[in-house]
Design a protein that fits this description.
The structure is a single chain. The longest helix has 15 residues. Strands 2-5-1-6 form a four-stranded antiparallel sheet, with helices on one face. The chain has a two-stranded antiparallel sheet with strand order 3-4. The protein is built from three helices and six strands, in the order βαββββαβα. It is an alpha+beta fold and 104 residues long.
């Protein structure tokens, strides 16, 4: 089953400079556990409305699409994220078809 994980930095703290290397190592290891199909950091994005287009200034830090057996396993994988200790929040959504989405 596919899931989308949206990472948000919701007012936590930055990774301290002396922990950056270890955090990158931990992040790489975590991404390996997820076996991510797609991982997109939100850099250079645009916010589009009916009136304007501007630089993205939101709190979403990235989007990951990954597979897990069920929602409990997806949650367990998200809980292993090294970013959680720095204030990141991960929102997880199961893949649903467009027809299912239209019915809700």
């Amino acid at each position: 089953m596919k899931f989308i994980l949206i990472s948000r930095h919701t007012g936590g703290r930055k990774v301290p400079e002396n922990e950056t290397d270890q955090n990158l190592k931990d992040l790489t290891e975590w991404m390996g556990l997820l076996k991510a199909e797609i991982a997109m950091p939100t850099r250079d994005g645009k916010s589009v409305t009916s009136k304007k287009v501007e630089e993205y200034q939101g709190e979403v830090g990235g989007v990951i699409i990954f597979e897990a057996e069920n929602v409990d396993r997806a949650i367990a994988l998200a809980q292993r994220s090294p970013g959680l200790k720095y204030g990141w929040t991960h929102d997880i959504f199961p893949e649903i078809s467009l027809s299912q989405a239209a019915q809700k």
